[in-house]
Design a protein that fits this description.
Length: 548
């Protein structure tokens, strides 16, 4: 029986008394994992723009990859993570992920996370590019929700933490008075349309990814890249924004949502077949249906030129309704059954490997600002994330970011709020109707899918740059959540296109028709204001990051 979602007071009167020590933007696995540690050292405010349970975390189906079987198991997990990342995984970050992962998962078990068990033993499944079964799952295919709920229940017991729902980040507050740019909090839009100014000694961006920048995505409506866009506008560097992972198997039927058909289906034996009924993956990779995601997604795109591609589990002798209750419930609406029918699928935007550049302790290039989870880029996933490593990433790097926030804040002078009012000029100068805002966002998303999606080239990227220039002239300007999201999506699209244009090779999730080969040296992209540069190791790039 799934844990019930906790209820919170969602009014601004719930704000802690100033001064606030720690502000966390985002209430998914990274934000909550951080909040639990931060609460040991000061007051914490966690803000989220919908109700608490509605994070990208809650949509994670397949599970959480973790090596619980000792050293050899950990070494293999590291090997698989590095292999999936196509030459670009930062080994230090990946080593931390796989080594600290088991401890974080043990904690989850102590906090009551109910992973699925058989005869009392934790059940493990396998997904693409994993050399063995190491993926824990909960309620069949509702792992993210179970983890999110158990973290929330834990956080709610902590007197130092306040949770504020229906609150959208507008911009970070930058203080340059002592000659150094430092982040001292954020402006927020509350559920009634009021602007809140929150000052904090350290601010964590844990707001997840940006799948909504594409018309076709498995991500929920909240995934609009807000935290990354806020950090970028404030002056933080971002990295590897061209690496957007396209999940190979999102449901595909006219007018139906692009619901995720978990990779765990293939882990449990699903075949991929084309419109002629042929199993085709043997033409693309020796691991067949369990090849890395980027390979499977491109294979499906090629095979799907003349018609849909299908998941076929009719040969799997298992009660698939019991194993995948959430997916089965979704499919029932379309009169489909995993045991009986083939399921139409095609790729959709799923996960951003890039994000705000951080070291492995969550420090960004701006003092007072930290990032963790999908919003951050430590280099842990390289050019293509290994399936089910994202929940683990949020747990591990959320906790590490909290530790550095605590130690840096201890040596930090108090925040003296500036006398000037926060800058809201981006939202001055007229209203845009809700319908126009939706049209504008739809235009951006459709063009991103067309020009900067799974298969890219210079012409497409050039066309997208024109689209973005033109959309900038009609940016929605109401001070509303949707207009804030529109502005953020525009920023994210710009970052993706600039980075993708600059990367003249194909690697991992970034595939260019005009440059189909790998470069000899694998390099990360880093965008620092108007300058795009490439360098081999991100952790090398972050040695000078300061969190003072
Ligand atoms: C899935 O269940 O296929 C998604 C899991 C992930 O993205 O790692």
């Amino acid at each position: 029986m799934p844990n019930a979602v906790p209820v919170v007071d969602s009014t601004p009167s719930n704000l802690p008394e100033p001064p606030l020590d720690f502000l966390v933007i985002g209430a998914g696995v990274a934000g909550l994992s951080a909040a639990i540690r931060l609460a040991t050292a000061g007051s914490v405010l966690v803000v989220t723009k919908e109700e608490l349970a509605e994070s990208n975390t809650a949509y994670a189906q397949g599970g959480i990859a973790v090596a619980m079987g000792g050293e050899e198991d950990v070494a293999l997990h590291l090997e698989d993570t590095i292999a999936a990342g196509d030459g670009l995984v930062d080994a230090e970050a990946a080593g931390i992920l796989v080594e600290q992962g088991p401890e974080r998962v043990e904690e989850l078990l102590e906090w009551g996370t109910a992973f699925d068990r058989e005869d009392g033993e934790l059940m493990l499944t396998r997904e693409g590019a994993h050399s063995r079964s190491r993926i824990l799952h909960a309620n069949g295919d509702a792992t993210g929700r179970e983890i999110a709920v158990s973290l929330l229940r834990h956080v709610q017991k902590l007197p130092n933490v306040r949770l504020l729902e229906w609150t959208t980040g507008i911009d970070l507050l930058v203080d340059s008075r002592n000659g150094q740019r430092q982040i001292i909090g954020a402006t927020l839009l509350d559920g009634e349309g009021g602007v809140l100014t929150v000052y904090a000694r350290a601010t964590l961006i844990a707001s997840g990814g940006a799948g909504q920048v594409y018309s076709d995505t498995t991500n929920p409506a909240v995934a609009t890249g807000d935290g990354i866009a806020m950090a970028w506008r404030a002056g933080a560097d971002v990295s590897d924004m061209e690496f957007y992972q396209f999940h190979p198997t999102a449901f595909s039927m006219p007018n139906a949502p692009r619901f995720l058909m978990s990779e765990a289906l293939r882990g449990e034996g699903a075949y991929l077949i084309n419109a002629r009924g042929e199993r085709f993956m043997e033409r693309y990779h020796p691991l067949l249906e369990l090849a890395p995601r980027d390979v499977v997604a491109r294979a499906i795109t090629r095979e799907g030129m003349d018609g849909p591609v299908y998941l076929d589990m009719r040969h799997v002798a298992k009660d698939l309704t019991a194993r995948f209750p959430g997916i089965s419930q979704f499919l029932r609406k379309y009169h489909l059954d995993l045991n009986r029918d083939i399921i139409p699928v095609r790729p959709a935007a799923h996960y951003l490997m890039g994000g705000v550049l951080t070291d492995v302790h969550g420090r960004t290039t701006l003092a007072g600002l930290y990032a963790a989870g999908e919003a951050a880029c430590t280099g842990v996933h390289g050019a293509n994330r290994l399936a089910s490593n994202s929940l683990l990433e949020g747990l591990v790097f959320g906790a590490l970011a909290a530790e550095s926030m605590i130690s840096d804040a201890a040596g930090r002078t108090s925040i003296f709020p500036p006398k000037t009012k926060p800058d809201l000029s981006a939202f001055e100068g007229g209203r845009t109707s809700d319908a126009d805002t939706e049209r504008w966002i739809g235009d951006l998303r459709g063009n991103m899918w067309k020009y900067a999606g799974l298969l890219r080239d210079a012409d497409g990227m050039g066309a997208m740059q024109h689209v973005l220039k033109s959309l900038a002239t009609s940016m929605p300007r109401a001070l509303s959540r949707r207009a804030i999201e529109a502005r953020n999506l525009h920023a994210i699209a710009g970052l993706i296109v600039r980075s993708a244009f600059g990367r003249c090779e194909s690697r991992g999730a970034h595939y260019r028709h005009d440059f189909p080969e790998h470069d000899a040296i694998a390099q990360h992209s880093i965008l620092e204001r108007d300058q795009l540069r490439f360098q081999p190791s991100l952790q090398g790039a972050t040695t000078a990051l300061n969190g003072v």
